[in-house]
Amino acid sequence: MRRALFNPFFLALAALLAPALCYAQGDSALRTRLRQVEADPALSAAALKAGAKTAEFCANCHGRNGQSLTADTPHLAAQLPAYMLTQMQLFIEGRRRHEFMQGLLKAMSVDEKVNVALYFSRQPLAAQASSDPTHMELAAHGKRYYDQICFRCHGAQGRGADQVPRIAGQQEAYMKLTLKRYRDGSAVRADPMMAESTRLMSDADIDAVAAHVAGMK
Fold this sequence. Notes:
The longest helix has about 30 residues, at about 10-40. The chain has about 220 residues and is an all-alpha fold. It has helices spanning about 10-40, 40-60, 80-95, 100-105, 110-120, 135-150, 150-155, 170-185, 190-200, 205-215. Keywords: Electron transport, Heme, Iron, Metal-binding, Periplasm, Signal, Transport. Pfam families: Cytochrom_C.
């Protein structure tokens, strides 16, 4: 009896692994190009100039110089470029869901993605601390929570590292929305570590942490 050329088990395994392999290859190409550009002053200067032009289109949603004004769109100013590139690849692969972003990023070249990520990473982001006494009290509660839990990954100053995003100065409304999505298991944005970290957060905790983070520098 002739053996089957394709074992059903291995076919199923290949189907499961294929998306992950595609993601790894795409992310690797972006990160490799980022390292090349960052290591060369001339390439960096050219990338920032080209990235500024691409960012003019991004400003329609993410705001001028990467400072968004809408609750469901994050600030990109001062964000870590490696993190932004990984998120771009997640959109492309459908692991982070947003139909418009997926289509847009699929149409962009590696250099276009790297250039715009570098451009936004160099833009200043102003803290949004409120002087309202009630809001300050809320932020103080958020700081206590942050200093117990969130700092372990995002750092004491909220500036992240590599694949852990900077959240210091991120807009408050977006932070609330994102934390609730993680906690509630939304398919829009899934992350096992963040799901576990937010699992026990109340709405009040989320509001407080978001208030604190928005005011961090």
